[in-house]
Design goal:
Elements (H helix, E strand, L loop, with lengths): L11 H33 L8 H8 L9 H24 L2 H10 L1 H15 L6 H10 L5 E5 L5 H6 L4 E6 L7 E3 L12 E7 L7 H11 E12 L6 H10 L2 E8 L3 E8 L23
Parallel strand pairs: 1-2, 1-4, 2-3, 4-5
Antiparallel strand pairs: 5-7, 6-7
Helix pairs in contact: 1-4, 3-5, 4-5
């Protein structure tokens, strides 16, 4: 396994501009967090009144935080939802390099995103990662690259059966290597199966596809699961994947998700042809 390649190809002025945008957004989010934390602390640790019988009980139970009221819980839930929507939108409307710099500057952003994501996933009638796990359980030992792995469920559940390499913006646990998934620390042709499960986020997601092509051996498999509503034209999306050296083997869809199984048949071309509108950003409605 080699060390991650640098991203020195980006012009310095572009990098400087990205860093400026990152710092402004990170500062704005940090100020919001500090304000919310300060207000919450004031509510939870307010001095009890001397003539309040309930307050006297609180004094005797020093060290135990006051329970939130139903209204406070609802307010907290709405604020968390608003932060999740802001982070989610940023991840879909910026480049992978920009988002990587943003979450490296403040890893709590990534943790907060995944708390919100987990809350959303609990409401789904199905989760595509379960289908991918079931498929790989039936296979003999292979080398898997889980690109945009989140909590790295593939490694957690299949790590004793397969060699699973997990990559995401932040190392959520011991299974995960932090990186921009357009540039992962694996040798060319070293992977049998590459997985993108709801991970093609960012405006340059086709760079992620090209990186999957690089690390896959010829004959290796690419598995993609995406939200149906993101794919405006399935044939156009598949065509763009095939231009990058893949052949579609299987396509299936449910009410919420589309899943594609492809095989690498050749190296990706030297140049990437721009095809706008292949995937729509997954942006939640503001409430």
């Amino acid at each position: 396994m080699k060390q991650p390649k640098g991203e020195s190809s980006a012009p310095k002025d572009r990098v400087s501009g990205d860093q400026s945008k990152v710092s402004k957004k990170a500062l704005k989010l940090q100020r919001l967090k500090e304000l919310l934390a300060s207000k919450q602390a004031q509510k939870l640790h307010a001095e009890p009144r001397a003539n309040d019988k309930a307050s006297k009980v609180t004094v005797r139970s020093a060290g135990q935080p006051k329970q939130l009221t139903a209204m406070q819980k609802e307010m907290q839930k709405k604020l968390s939802g608003a932060r999740f929507r802001w982070i989610n939108e940023a991840m879909y409307t910026e480049t992978g390099a920009h988002t990587y710099a943003m979450v490296q500057a403040d890893p709590e952003i990534f943790a907060e995103y995944h708390r919100g994501f987990a809350e959303q996933a609990r409401r789904w009638p199905e989760n595509p990662i379960d289908a991918i796990i079931a498929q790989l359980r039936e296979r003999s030992r292979v080398v898997v690259a889980d690109l945009g792995c989140g909590e790295a469920r593939l490694a957690a559940e299949l790590g004793t059966q397969h060699a699973v390499h997990s990559f995401d913006l932040v190392a959520h646990n011991e299974h995960v290597t932090a990186c921009n998934i357009a540039n992962v620390p694996l040798d060319a042709g070293s992977v049998d199966v590459a997985v993108f499960c709801l991970a093609l986020m960012g405006t340059d997601f086709m760079q992620f596809i090209r990186e999957a092509n690089r690390i896959l051996r010829v004959g290796g498999e690419l598995k993609i699961a995406e939200v149906v509503s993101r794919v405006a034209d399935v044939d156009a999306f598949v065509g763009a994947l095939e231009e990058q050296g893949f052949r579609l083997d299987r396509r299936r869809a449910s009410k919420m998700f589309i899943m594609l199984d492809l095989t690498k048949i050749s190296k990706h071309p030297a140049k990437l042809r721009a095809v706008p509108g292949l995937l729509k950003p997954c942006i939640y409605k503001r409430r």
